[in-house]
Design a protein that fits this description.
Layout: E1 4-8, H1 20-39, E2 42-49, H2 54-62, H3 67-84, E3 91-94, H4 98-113, E4 117-127, E5 132-134, E6 139-142, E7 145-148, E8 156-165, H5 171-180, E9 185-186, H6 188-199, E10 205-206, E11 208-209, E12 217-218, E13 221-226, H7 228-233, H8 235-238, H9 248-253, E14 258-262, H10 266-279, E15 288-291, E16 294-296, E17 299-300, H11 311-318, H12 320-330, E18 337-338, H13 341-371, H14 383-394, H15 396-404, H16 408-429, H17 438-459, H18 464-471, H19 484-487
Parallel strand pairs: 1-2, 1-14, 2-3, 9-15, 14-15, 16-18
Antiparallel strand pairs: 4-5, 4-8, 6-7, 8-10, 11-13, 12-13, 16-17
Length: 512
């Protein structure tokens, strides 16, 4: 079995500072990456910034800076966000790096040599904001302004000489790809959208521009720069040192297991990107997942609307792990979601403080007072003990499948159920009334400690810092963390000395 796993976020467009949508994509990708790592996979997790195009050039000019200087400053904020979000990414790619230039120009040369690219003239509607061309039926006019129906971004009429990629040639091959790999595009609603678009007829795609200079030059024609999507999408292989397809990174990790993206850039990833790769005789990625937007109220966040939600503000007020937990539990993955401060506070107080945090504190306090902080020797588990303990190993393959199918909500539901059942178990068993029955008391505490350990391991991809604090009870460090003991139903060793920990989650006063 191939135990390598490659996951990517979209590379973010640094024309303005990061917002909650960027944080959401990154947190979701980090969740998958961390789970696959403790499942035993060699994980390569990539994020980065897409730094070319007319939008960047105009933003730089507006700020009286050259484009690279502007990108250096904004890209730095995205790198810092990766640290703030506690991402486990292996690499951060910038499309202004030499390794990326080399990859893009090599891919261009291959496509040109194969006759997949030709020079002609483009005329049509172009959105600077989306860096996308739109057909007439994808445009609407509101109050005298033409905009793209999909994004609401304004469009302008463009006529210029351009290189074209023979996208129309790959229509049938793309449909075969989707049919052969039924989960190539998820969720299913997104797949239906893409298949419908491709079946409606693909037109050749403009892949160069002459009207601006901020980009990677076409190797055979210095008057043109490579259009942003052929440039940007190549980041997924330039980070693996393509065109050296014999190097260890490329051999281990390509094709990518999962490109995680927002639904607004689905067409570029699910149509254009596999077509480029197929035309260059390179493998297509294994899956594209187009998740929903994090809304501000009922609409998508955008700089122009002035409705940006700043993840740093929320983290500073409530903490990182509570935000991660909220986004993973409360947003129906694949659909749009939003940040509700009331629901966030409820998650912190109910799930994290009252449920999991309280369980850890109560069990530890009792173990400290009655068992000298030592894992007791259990004696004769009853059916209730075993049902709870065995529930993890019995559901292990289901949990793995949830992750493999990007079914985050079912994974989270399992954890929430186990936290509730573990708390109920400790309350119902009343170990404080069993001091005359030492064997039963020992078994109750052993079971409770083991439940805390198992829940903490499954919470690690969700709230890594808090989960590691809980795992410190058992002297389990991040480097040694794996799910083998859950998979094989192995339990804590009796006589193990355990540690007291500080309160994991402080309740939020709703009157604050």
């Amino acid at each position: 079995m191939n135990k390598n796993y490659y996951i990517t976020t979209p590379i973010y467009y640094p024309s303005a500072k990061p917002h909650m949508g960027h944080a959401y994509s990154s947190i979701i990708a980090d969740f998958f990456a961390r789970f696959k790592k403790i499942e035993g996979f060699n994980v390569f997790f990539l994020t980065g910034t897409d730094e070319h195009g007319l939008k960047i050039q105009r933003a730089a000019e507006k700020n009286n800076k050259n484009p690279l200087e502007f990108c250096d400053e904004i890209s730095k904020t995205f790198k810092e966000l990766s640290k703030t979000l506690n991402l486990s990414n292996n690499d951060f790619i910038r499309t202004t790096e030499k390794r990326h230039y080399k990859s893009v120009q090599n891919l261009w040369n291959i496509l040109e040599e194969k006759g997949e690219i030709y020079l002609s003239k483009y005329s049509g509607w172009y959105s600077v904001s989306d860096e996308a061309f739109y057909s007439e039926d994808e445009i609407e006019e509101i109050n005298g302004t033409k905009s793209a129906k999909l994004s609401g971004s304004s469009v302008e009429w463009v006529e210029e000489e351009s290189y074209f990629f023979k996208l129309s040639k790959w229509q049938d091959k793309l449909l075969q790809l989707y049919e052969k790999n039924e989960n190539f595009i998820l969720p299913k609603s997104r797949k239906n959208e893409v298949v419908s678009f491709v079946k409606s007829g693909l037109k050749d795609l403009s892949v160069s521009r002459k009207s601006f200079s901020w980009g990677i030059q076409v190797p055979t024609n210095k008057d043109h720069v490579i259009y942003v999507w052929l440039d940007a999408l190549t980041n997924y292989i330039s980070a693996l040192n393509y065109p050296d397809v014999g190097n260890d990174l490329y051999k281990k990790y390509w094709p990518a297991d999962l490109h995680l993206i927002g639904k607004d850039i689905l067409r570029f990833h699910a149509v254009y990107w596999p077509a480029f790769l197929l035309a260059a005789n390179l493998p297509a990625p294994k899956r594209i997942y187009g998740h929903g937007w994090i809304l501000s109220g009922d609409v998508k966040m955008s700089k122009s609307k002035g409705n940006i939600l700043d993840p740093i503000e929320i983290i500073n007020k409530f903490g990182l792990d509570p935000l991660r937990y909220y986004l993973l539990k409360e947003v129906s993955f694949g659909n749009d979601g939003n940040i509700s401060e009331d629901k966030l506070i409820s998650c912190i107080n109910s799930d994290l403080a009252n449920n999991f945090g309280n369980l850890c504190q109560r069990v530890l306090a009792f173990t400290d007072k009655n068992l000298d902080l030592e894992v007791p020797e259990p004696d004769n588990f009853n059916s209730e003990d075993l049902n709870l303990l065995d529930n993890f190993s019995k559901n292990y393959q289901n949990l793995v499948e949830f992750i493999n199918q990007q079914n985050i909500n079912s994974y989270m539901n399992f954890i929430v159920d186990q936290m509730f059942l573990s708390n109920k178990y400790f309350n119902d068993q009343e170990p404080w009334k069993k001091k005359d029955n030492r064997k039963r008391l020992n078994t109750i505490i052993y079971t409770s400690l083991e439940l805390i350990r198992k829940i903490s391991m499954l919470l690690y991809p969700v709230i890594p810092s808090s989960a590691l604090k809980a795992l410190d009870i058992f002297n389990i460090e991040e480097e040694s963390l794996n799910l083998e003991s859950i998979k094989n139903n192995k339990f804590l060793k009796p006589k193990l000395k355990i540690n007291k920990i500080n309160i994991l989650f402080n309740k939020v006063n709703v009157d604050d």
